[in-house]
Write a structure and sequence with these properties.
By secondary structure, this protein is mostly helical. The protein is built from six helices and five strands.
Length: 186
């Protein structure tokens, strides 16, 4: 028993020190190197504050739609739906989102819908969509706003955020920033 208990206690103590101390300090240090030092990225428009690093709900046809949220865009409770792709409830929900998207975007074929427009992210608060998800919405917005598609393509292209250091991640578009630019593009 002594041969098993002593190594287990040592491992517990080392793990406690590492994960409660060193790991926490390293993650905090990395956060300090990010834009805004790991704090919320606040954008003020017409004296109203928005958080650009937290997903916002945009469902009006005149705006680029954001990714669905499993938590109703409530930043106090981040989390996914925890329903897998074989869950019948989840499949019904995704199918309803696809049908809704097709009603609002009749020129788009079902196979052209990027998955992030009909599935929520793991956090439920993802503020980004892929450039493809933005481009697929251009015809609808151009028609509703009576704008040229070329102007909207330029706007989306201008809002594409590159991966960190060109290596980590993929190209994304922040939906809030894009919709603010869209409002200012009149």
């Amino acid at each position: 028993m002594k041969t098993n208990l002593l190594p287990a206690l040592k491992l517990t103590l080392v793990s406690l020190l590492f994960f409660s101390g060193l790991y926490t300090i390293v993650i905090w240090g990395i956060a300090c190197l990010t834009p805004n030092g790991g704090n919320a990225q606040v954008i003020t428009v017409n004296n109203k504050k928005y958080y650009s690093n937290i997903g916002q709900s945009f469902t009006d046809d005149k705006y680029f739609n954001s990714r669905p949220s499993a938590v109703g865009y409530n930043a106090a409770g981040s989390g996914g739906s925890n329903k897998g792709p074989s869950n019948p409830e989840y499949l019904v929900q995704v199918k309803a989102r696809i049908d809704t998207f097709l009603v609002h975007n009749p020129d788009v074929k079902k196979a052209e819908i990027p998955s992030e427009l009909v599935t929520s992210s793991g956090s439920g608060l993802d503020p980004h969509i892929s450039p493809e998800a933005a481009f697929v919405q251009i015809k609808r917005i151009a028609m509703v706003r009576n704008m040229s598609e070329d102007k909207l393509i330029t706007l989306v292209t201008k809002n594409i955020e590159k991966p960190l250091l060109g290596l980590f991640g993929t190209n994304t578009v922040n939906v809030l920033k894009l919709n603010i630019d869209l409002e200012n593009a009149k």
